[in-house]
Amino acid sequence: MALVTTKEMFEKAYAGGYAIGAFNVNNMEIVQGITEAAGALKSPVILQVSAGARKYANHNYLVKLVEAALLENDIPIALHLDHGADFEICKSCIDGGFTSVMIDASHYSFNENIEITRKVVDYAHQKGVVVEAELGQLSGIEDDVKVSAEEASYTHPDEVEEFVDKTGVDSLAIAIGTSHGAFKFKPGQKPQLRFDILDEVSKRLPNFPIVLHGASSVSQEYVKIIQQNGGKLEDAIGIPEDMLRQAARSAVCKINIDSDLRLAMTAGVRQAMFANPAAFDPREYLKVGRENVKALVEHKIKNVLGSENKA
Ligand code: G3H
Ligand code: 13P
Ligand code: ZN
Q1: What is the pLDDT of residues 204-238, one digit of tens each?
Q2: Where does ligand 2 bind, in terms of residues with CB under 6 Å?
Q3: Which one, of 176, 217, 210, 172, lies nearest residue 196 by Cα?
Q4: What would the pLDDT profile of 79-98 be if each residue is shown by its tens digit?
């Protein structure tokens, strides 16, 4: 099967009340771990590449790794640019074989966001590539979510129809209280998401795919393994999986996960290195990281995304 866009994946996910996992890839073991899990569970999957991943691993290496994964697994795979900062990086990925790009102009004014996103959509659609954009900016939840300065970073539902109409974008990332990284809430703070905003957005955008960034759950099991093997991750807190499952049943069709992969890979490598401090064959410890990535993605597909047997 060739790479696909997210169009059909999202239509089916919306109708079926599940979501597609969008997992960040940076090297071969991560690509293998994710796609072996998705292949075994017959789940569609999105592999996403950040600017940092392109800098680390090189665009061509990542594209070829993903193409190799397609030869090994008979499932729909989309290759997506995560957080494209400007038109140029989006164009480079569109021209370079990606089937989906995100233009993240969410930190600009509403009108500038529309203008930049529209330019990317015009170019991408000519080439058969789909586009995700973002309205609102992710952040952690402060003690009182009703503080108006905090409110400013959540997506405003009254802006979404105009944004989608004027840009022609294919999916929309919204800010409802998730955040990037492994430290999403303060110690003792109750994890909370603004499902009221999600509901309001989906009412205003019927049948339109919504994207959740910053959706790692930060398994305390991996945190503990990392700590026990020389790492420091005190107070790492993620989004509870039952909240993500609830989101996946609604208009949310794409759930972004990177930090959980990092924790899984790092826990495996640390454990293997500590089990055998004399190890000097990278295969010995990368293999354990890859197995953890595979187990993590299987867990997400079954318990969070609901995308098993949807390929
Ligand atoms: O949302 C950001 C992703 O976790 C990618 O992170 O830019 O360090 O590759 P990165
Ligand atoms: P996490 O840091 O929660 O994994 O979020 C990843 C993400 O949103 C990538 O775009
Ligand atoms: Zn993100």
Answers
A1: 999 999 999 999 999 999 999 999 999 999 999 99
A2: 24, 82-83, 180-181, 213-216, 256-260
A3: 176
A4: 999 999 999 999 999 999 99
Residue that has been written with the tokens 């990535």 in this structure: 293
Ion ligand 3: residues, CB within 5 A, are: 213
State if residue 80 touches ligand 1 by the CB under 6 angstroms criterion: no
Residue 136: pLDDT above 90?
yes
Q: What pLDDT shows up at residue 1? A: 86
Amino acid letter for position 256: N
Domain range for 292 is 7-305
For 135, list phi and psi in degrees, rounded to 5: -125, 130
- The ligand placed nearest to the CA atom of residue 80 is 2
CB of 17 sitting under 6 A from ligand 1: no
Question: What's the token pair of residue 21?
Answer: 């996992």
For the entire predicted model, the pTM comes to 0.96
Distances in Å between the alpha carbon of 156 and those of 81, 131, 175, 200?
25, 20, 9, 9
Q: Are 237 and 218 in contact (CB under 8 A)?
A: yes
Mean of the per-residue pLDDT values of the chain:
95
Of the pLDDT bands very low, low, confident and very high (cuts 50, 70, 90), residue 142 is very low
Within 8 A by CB and 6+ apart from 247, the residues are 19, 193, 195, 198, 212, 215, 255
Question: What is the CATH number for 51?
Answer: 3.20.20.70
Residue 53 belongs to a domain: yes
Q: Is the confidence at residue 143, as pLDDT, over 80?
A: no
Number of domains, the chain: 1
